[in-house]
Amino acid sequence: MWTRDLLMGVRFAVAGGRPGWARTTLTAIGVGLGVALLLFAASAPSVLQNVDSRADARVPIWYEDLAPGPDTLRYESIPTVYHGAQVTGMLLQPDAGEATTATPPPGVAAFPAPGEMVVSPALKRLLDSSGHEVLRERLAGYEITGTIGDAGLRGPAELVFYMGTDTLTDAAADGTPHHNRTDAFGASYPPTPLSPMLILLILVICVVLLMPVAVFIATAVRFGGERRDQRLAALRLVGADRSGTRRIAAGEALAGALLGLAVGLLFFLLLRQAASHITLAGTSAFPADFVPSAPLAVLILAAVPLSAVLVTLFALRGVAIEPLGVVRESADRPRRLWWRLVPAALGLMLLLPLAGAYSAGSGGARELQAGAGIVLVLVGATAFLPWLVERGVAAFRGGPVSWQLAVRRLQLGSGSASRAVSGITVAVAGAIALQMLFGGVQAEESGPTGYDTDEAQIQVVSSGMTAESSTGMLGELSGTQGVLDIFGSYSGYAVRPEDRQLPGELVAPGVYIADCTTLRKMADLPDCANGDVFLAADPDDPGEGTFPLPGPGDTVDVSVDADGAAWDPDRAGPDLWTVPDDALRVDSVGDPLGRWAHGILATPGALDGSRFGGGFTEVLINVDPDDRVDTVERLRTVLFGMPERPALWEIQSAWTSDEFASIQRGLLIGSIAVLALIGASMIVSQLEQLRERKRLLASLVAFGTKRTTLSASVLWQTAVPVALGLTVASVAGTVLGFVLMRMVGLRVTDWFGFLPMAAAGLVVIAVVTLASMPLLWRLMRPEGLRTE
Q1: 241, exposed or middle or buried, with CB in 10 Å at 0-12, 13-18, 19+?
Q2: Where does this protein reside within or beyond the cell (predicted)?
Q3: Left if phi > 0, otherwise alpha if psi is -120 to 50, otherwise beta: which for 148?
Q4: In the chain, what is the greatest distance between 2 CA atoms, to the nearest angstrom?
């Protein structure tokens, strides 16, 4: 019985003439969009695993002491940045030269010879295109002899290069051991554990992004419900019983769902092939990376058809399909409220006990409880919306003709309108809660740095330069186009020999060699000339934890490290220097990075920096604000070829943790996909409703109704449910966000986080209305009066 009736429903779906094909096509497209997005979500573990495994596979295995051999090589990481994009680079030097038996990095066929390099396809395209002369200059001197294969790249858009060289040694420029020899690639390091706040944030993101998909699929299988019920009434006329008509309807929905699975799989395969050409927030992946998890794929393949059948049977529970018509066309029984509040109440009951108890040691049970609670609250918002739309439109009276047409249509049957808005209601409610939690977590995972970006925007540091090299670098940087001011110092440490006997772990005062302009950024100086020396201390800092600051006439050892010990134990002895008797004591001032100098400030004529045991170079640069981007790239190019590998940092007024930044990128990618799905779902639903009202629209035009009036009525029919849905979403999202923040002990900082989401809803109204206009005007033609 079930099999026969289900097969009959399938035949109605695929061989029921143009109306049946149209309904099945709309259902298949709607379900297909949702299935495709679910398959991409199910592929996320595979993508992350594949990307991370390829990244780990190219990391050299570190050895503290490895003897050279035919299968070993020296390496040095030389990354750079170009217009905000990370460029991963490495120098390679096999110990045995061309006779090496060492295995090259993944994706590289053979080690590049000195003066040669292999690059990723994306980097090669960048170098070959116009407008990137600065990057070509940075990598000049190396001939491109090959490209890196997929096995050596995190994604197709990654910028990577390997350079061949014969200049690497076992010591850095400052003489310290390098430990840069390996015999294999493939090191892996355990990931940094996430904080409870970030774990909860990820959990909320997953629920918020996937819930609208499930709602949309449930909505799609109910497309064309009114015409379907009329066909079922005709079947009752020829002898089918009520149970049989429900089974036939289930079969029709099953056919649309199965076809939707096929369409979704097709969408998934097509979009997967295009994945290599898409880069979102700096993230890309290869098509082969998108492999849905087997358990999740099986769950999707089973849940979608099953949910289609269950949703159809549930929708028919209040419809009396009789041989002479469908009783639903008379007045509907008012929707009941009590059971619609149960899911939200259960969700809050699950979430409230977690307030203040959600911690790093909570375990999977707490995460499952939190996830279930979030889902139930969002389901409750969706269940409450149809009741609110029904009661809301019932109270509307009067108004323009377009308003009355829209309201009357909603009063006669608000179910389809409510279903169309359910997806955006869930999405907006979740987005509001997510925005509140996101804002609270952002306060913990980011914040102001306190740096003065008006004084300096670039910091350059190097710990391996000699005093002579440091002076040369300052000259090159100051001559770079776009540099307005430059403040550079060469520093070491100094301690009086007798102070080394002091107990405790103390830090030696610094010795800073710089010109007077730079020293004035570090202390409040009187007159300054080359050859002067100053003793700077923070007037508000007693100097606890540091060696005593030397005074005028004191003898100090300038060959020590920060702990006051000899920098080079093999050195013959200390390098003693006497502080001039005329050295002035001055108060230090905060530099652009908010630091206060404590130590000796010397001009180049007073002390030779080559006497330091190990010198540290720091440069703060003020650049032309109108040419900042290009100036930064020119500075990176100047520094890239230096053997000491100075590091350049852009000084930021705010900081963000790396983990939080990664979650931000994932949220951006998921939000774009879900917003696209929501827009598509509402457009498809609106087109389906217009198609069912073709004769009515044509009749109204035939009786003299203006086309602009009907267009405005369509706008109102979309706007009213969306407005009510946004109201429900705002309340539910705000309550959910408050509870989530209590779970991790955060305070609400923004009670108006729903406003951007409400604005997004208005944009959706405009997009859906504009997209439906062409079909609406076509349906209002006289041909719409024809019937079969």
Answers
A1: exposed
A2: Cell membrane
A3: beta
A4: 116
- Extents of the domains making up the chain: 73-182, 196-224+234-241+281-447+658-785, 458-652
- In this structure, the strands spanning 458-462 and 555-560 are unpaired
* pLDDT exceeds cutoff 60 at 176: no
* Interatomic CA distance for residues 455 and 445, integer angstroms: 26
Q: What confidence score (pLDDT) does residue 749 get?
A: 66
Spatial contact of 231 and 16, defined as CB atoms under 8 Å apart: yes
- Whole-angstrom distance, CA of residue 304 vs CA of residue 218: 9
pLDDT at 75: 93
pLDDT in tens, 623-654: 999 999 999 999 999 999 888 889 999 988 77
Sign of CA dihedral 762, 767, 768, 769: positive
Q: How do strand 85-94 and strand 159-164 relate by DSSP bridges?
A: parallel
Is 487 within 8 Å of 518 (Cβ atoms)?
Answer: yes
- Confidence (pTM): 0.73
Tell me which range, 254-258, 555-559, 589-593, 769-773, is most confidently predicted by mean pLDDT. Answer: 555-559
CA distance from start to end of the chain = 31
Q: What distances in angstroms separate CA 109 from CA 53, 161, 502, 771, one per listed residue?
A: 19, 13, 58, 52
Where residue 328 falls among pLDDT bands split at 50, 70, 90?
Answer: very low
Q: Find out whether 215 and 421 touch, Cβ atoms under 8 Å.
A: no
Q: Distance between CA 396 and CA 390 in Å, rounded?
A: 11
